Amino acid sequence: MNDAEQKMISRREAIIGAGKFAAGAAIVTLGAQVLPARVKAATPAAWPWGYKKLDVQEVGNLAYENWYKNFCCYAVVSGLLMPLQKSIGEPFTSLPLEAFVWGHGGAVGWGTLCGSLTGAGIATGLIAGKEGEAILNDVIAWYASTSLPIYKPAQPKAEIKNVNTSDSPLCHISVGKWMKKEGVAFASPQRKERCARLSADVAMRTATLLNDWADKKYKPVHGSNVKDHGITTQLNCMECHGDKVPTPVMPAPAK
Ligand code: HEC
Fold first, then answer.
1. Ligand 1 pocket residue status of 235, Cβ below 6 Å
2. Atom 19 (ligand 1): residue with closest C-alpha?
3. Which residue, of 14, 130, 150, 151, is most buried by count of CB atoms within 10 Å of its CB?
4. Which residue, judged by its Cα, is nearest atom 38 of ligand 1?
5. How does pLDDT run across 143-161, given as a tens digit for each residue?
């Protein structure tokens, strides 16, 4: 065996060794995370998981910073739930927050529900159960009708000029209108900054409503789109249908 061959082998061994080590580490972490869940399986944690009032500014700062780690859905879930992992502990502590990264870009880039809102829904569902739906409904209505972003980071990662009202909870429409106004591409640092700030806004709005809910001051505002319009829908009908908005077929009145 010459020197070069020797080096190759020791490099391979090092790589294989590293692999073994990583696999071992994975089993150890898995063990630590899965075990409490298994133990709990016998006595499942009561759902919803409960709530301790959040510091709204802290939630926003966390969401903003965490956007740059794993994007919008993770940003909002972690902004809301990381403080509860500290203040409440289990079962929040065992929840792997990275499991919700998929919401980015309106579900892995499909431009459907803005991932920040998906994140808000995951959190409100765990925290408030069925009542969380009303909170999410109001967060979505607010999102679609508010000029965003509002949040100003202490140390911005990029400067942006524009805010916009989306009239829609869809990622594609919301970010598309803003990109046109700002004159930037999707991959630009400005667009990233806008989505990071907007995620902070959604997390803060959700925390504000959850705090009101905890104080028994929360009153749902937005009604049911299905009841009002006879179809699951967003409210910017004319942006898609022009002035020929179809009338949904309604059920025949009961005789
Ligand atoms: C994001 C775009 C978008 C928005 C917003 C939207 N629609 Fe639609 N809607 C569509 C598309 C696309 C279809 C598929 C059928 C078609 O091409 O007409 C559809 C289908 C429908 C249908 C069933 C098909 C029919 O002709 O009866 C109804 C009813 C309807 N929309 C009503 C509404 C109403 C009312 C609103 C607002 C409250 C609305 N839509 C908002 C895009 C949209």
1. yes
2. 241
3. 151
4. 235
5. 999 999 999 999 999 999 9
